[in-house]
C-alpha cells in the first residue's frame, strides 16, 4: 500500500476569483462574463475560479454544474469549486469533481463580484505564492502577468513587451519594455533591472515614462521604488 | 521526412521573397528536392522573382479548394533540377488560406520533398500566421534598423506561441537570424545598427549577413534567384547562409567595410 510521505503533501495558499451565480439559465451571465473578460483577457486566461451559490436556488444538478463549467471554460476560466452551496448543490458539485470552499476571505458585507474579485483576492491572499520565473526573452508584444506573486526574468524584456506582477519585479537582463509592479495596489513593491531602459515603469498605479527618467539612471543597474507616493529611481541596487 | 522552413520578418520589404528564392535555389543546388511556396495571397511576388510568372496555370488556392491537384500547380524551375515553385493566387486574398486545405497540402508536399520553404507575407495576421504554422525552422529576415528589429522581435514571439510546434508543445521551431541589406560603411557612420546590436536585442543565433547590393534588384528584375549570379556579393552571402543552415562552418563575411584601392583585390582573394 502506498503511503504519503510528509514531503509529498505540503500546504499551499492560492488566490482564486469568485464568480457569483444567480440564475443559471440567464443568458446575461455569459454576456457579463464576456464583457468582464474582454477588459483584461490575460488576467482571466486559465484562471481557477470558485462559484458562489448564495443567490442561486436552482443550480442543483450535475447538468447545471457541467454547463457552468463549460460556460466558464469558454471564457478561459477553470471552475475548481463552489462556496455557499446548500447540501443538494454540494452533492451535485462534488459529482463533477468540484471542491467545497468555506466562504472566501472577502469582507463580510461586500459581495465578491467578478470585477471586485481581482483586487480583493490579491489583497486578502497571504503573499506566500511562489515567485514566477521566466528564463526566456520576453518578446515584443508579449504580456506576462504574475498574479499574486513576484516576477523574476533571467533574460531581457524587449521594447513593446509588458511584464506585470502583483509583487516585485526583478529583471536580470535588459529591461526595455514596460514593467508594472504592485499591480493590485501593493505600494511596497519594487522593480529591479540589471540594465534599465524601460519604456514605462509603474508601482501601484503610479507611473513614469522613459522620457521622464533622468538619463543618468538609464542603461545600467537600477531600482524603482514608490517613496512618499512618488516613483523614485535608485542607482544600482540602491541604499534606499 | 521533409523540413518546413518559414521565411518571415514581421516588417515588409526587408528581403523575405529574395531570401526564399535564394534559399530554395541554394538547397536545390545541393541536391535536395525543394519547393518554395508563396503565402502572400493577392500580392504574389515569388513567381516574378523566380522568373516563372508566365507559366502559372493553377495556384496554391486552386489546390486548397480542390480545383486542381498539386502536380498541376507545381512549376518546375528551368535552371535547377530539384527546384519547384508553388505560386499563389493574385486575384484572391488571405482569407482563402483555409486551415484544413493548407494542412492537407503541406502533408502531401512533405511526402515528396526534402525542404519546403514558405515565403511569408509581411504582418502578423492570418497570412503570416498560416505561413509559420507548420514550420520546423524559421529564417527571420531583419534589416539593421530599429523598426525592422522591433517587428522581428514580435514575430519571434509569435513563432514561439502560435506555431503548431508551440501548440502541441513539441520541440520549438529552430530560430535563425538573417541580417539583410547590411552596409558596413553605414554601420561605421552610426547610421545603421551593427550586427552586435541586433544580436543583443534579438538573442537569436545569426545565420548570415547579406550585404546591400544592387545585384539584388537586377536579379529580381530578371527573374533569377540572386544566388545564381556569380558576381553578386549578396549571392555569395546567401550561399554561405545556406551552407551554415545545413550544418557547415563558414566564416561570416561582409561584416567589415571593403578596403579601397589596389589592396582590395589582394585582400578579396585572401579572404574568400
Q: How would you portray this structure in words?
A:
The complex is a heterodimer of chains A (240) and B (272). Chain A is α/β, with parallel strands linked by helices and 240 residues long. Chain A has helices at 27-39, 41-44, 62-74, 87-95, 117-124; strands at 17-20, 48-52, 78-83, 99-101, 132-134, 143-146, 151-153, 162-165, 169-175, 178-181, 191-196, 200-203, 206-209, 222-227, 230-235. In chain A, a hairpin with a 2-residue loop joins strand 12 (200-203) and strand 13. Chain B has 272 residues and is of the alpha/beta class. In chain B, strands 3-4-2-5-1-6-7-8 form an eight-stranded mixed sheet, with helices on both faces. In chain B, helix 1 (16-29) packs across helix 12. The model of chain B has no long low-confidence stretch (mean pLDDT 94). The chains are: A alpha/beta (240), B alpha/beta (272).
Structural class of chain A: alpha/beta
Output mean pLDDT of chain B.
94
**% residues in beta strands of chain A:** 25-35%
Helix content of chain A: 10-25%
Terminus-to-terminus distance of chain A? 56 Å
Helix content of chain B: 40-55%
Amino acid at each position: 500500500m502506498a503511503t504519503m510521505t510528509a514531503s509529498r503533501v505540503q500546504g499551499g495558499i492560492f488566490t482564486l476569483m469568485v464568480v457569483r451565480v444567480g440564475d443559471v439559465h440567464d443568458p446575461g451571465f455569459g454576456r457579463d462574463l464576456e464583457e468582464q473578460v474582454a477588459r483584461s483577457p490575460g488576467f482571466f486566461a486559465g484562471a481557477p475560479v470558485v462559484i458562489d451559490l448564495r443567490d442561486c436556488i436552482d443550480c442543483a444538478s450535475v447538468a447545471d454544474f457541467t454547463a457552468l463549467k463549460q460556460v466558464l471554460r469558454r471564457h478561459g476560466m477553470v471552475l475548481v469549486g463552489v462556496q455557499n452551496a446548500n447540501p443538494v448543490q454540494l452533492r451535485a458539485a462534488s459529482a463533477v469533481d468540484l471542491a467545497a470552499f468555506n466562504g472566501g476571505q472577502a469582507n463580510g458585507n461586500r459581495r465578491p463580484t467578478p470585477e471586485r474579485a481581482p483586487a480583493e483576492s490579491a489583497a486578502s491572499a497571504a503573499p506566500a505564492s511562489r515567485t514566477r520565473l521566466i528564463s526566456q526573452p520576453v518578446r515584443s508584444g508579449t504580456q506576462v502577468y504574475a498574479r499574486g506573486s513576484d516576477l523574476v526574468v533571467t533574460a531581457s524584456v524587449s521594447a513593446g513587451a509588458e511584464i506585470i506582477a502583483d509583487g516585485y519585479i526583478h529583471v536580470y537582463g535588459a529591461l526595455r519594455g514596460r514593467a508594472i509592479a504592485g499591480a493590485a495596489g501593493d505600494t511596497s513593491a519594487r522593480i529591479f533591472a540589471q540594465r534599465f531602459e524601460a519604456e514605462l515603469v509603474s508601482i501601484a498605479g503610479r507611473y513614469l515614462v522613459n522620457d521622464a527618467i533622468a538619463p543618468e539612471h538609464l542603461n545600467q543597474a537600477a531600482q524603482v521604488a514608490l517613496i512618499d507616493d512618488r516613483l523614485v529611481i535608485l542607482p544600482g541596487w540602491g541604499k534606499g | 521526412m521533409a523540413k518546413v522552413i518559414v521565411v518571415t520578418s514581421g516588417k515588409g520589404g526587408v528581403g523575405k521573397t529574395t531570401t526564399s528564392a535564394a534559399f530554395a535555389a541554394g538547397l536545390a543546388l545541393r541536391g535536395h528536392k525543394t519547393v518554395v511556396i508563396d503565402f502572400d495571397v493577392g500580392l504574389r511576388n515569388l513567381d516574378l522573382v523566380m522568373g516563372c510568372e508566365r507559366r502559372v496555370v493553377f495556384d496554391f488556392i486552386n489546390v486548397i479548394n480542390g480545383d486542381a491537384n498539386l502536380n498541376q500547380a507545381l512549376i518546375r524551375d528551368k535552371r535547377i533540377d530539384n527546384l519547384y515553385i508553388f505560386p499563389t493566387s493574385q486575384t484572391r486574398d488571405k482569407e482563402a488560406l483555409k486551415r484544413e486545405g493548407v494542412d492537407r497540402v503541406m502533408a502531401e508536399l512533405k511526402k515528396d520533398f526534402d525542404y519546403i520553404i514558405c515565403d511569408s507575407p509581411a504582418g502578423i495576421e492570418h497570412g503570416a500566421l498560416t505561413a509559420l504554422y507548420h514550420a520546423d525552422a524559421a529564417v527571420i529576415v531583419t534589416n539593421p534598423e530599429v523598426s525592422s528589429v522591433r517587428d522581428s522581435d514580435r514575430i519571434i514571439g509569435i513563432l514561439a506561441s502560435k506555431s503548431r510546434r508551440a501548440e502541441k508543445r513539441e520541440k520549438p521551431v529552430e530560430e535563425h537570424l538573417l541580417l539583410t541589406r547590411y552596409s558596413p560603411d553605414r554601420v561605421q557612420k552610426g547610421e545603421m545598427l551593427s550586427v552586435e546590436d541586433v544580436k543583443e536585442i534579438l538573442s537569436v543565433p545569426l545565420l548570415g549577413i547579406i550585404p546591400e547590393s544592387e545585384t539584388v534588384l537586377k536579379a529580381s528584375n530578371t527573374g533569377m534567384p540572386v544566388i545564381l549570379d556569380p558576381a553578386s556579393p549578396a549571392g555569395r552571402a546567401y550561399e554561405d547562409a545556406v551552407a551554415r543552415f545545413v550544418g557547415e562552418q563558414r566564416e561570416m563575411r561582409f561584416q567589415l567595410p571593403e578596403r579601397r584601392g589596389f589592396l582590395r583585390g589582394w585582400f578579396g582573394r585572401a579572404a574568400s
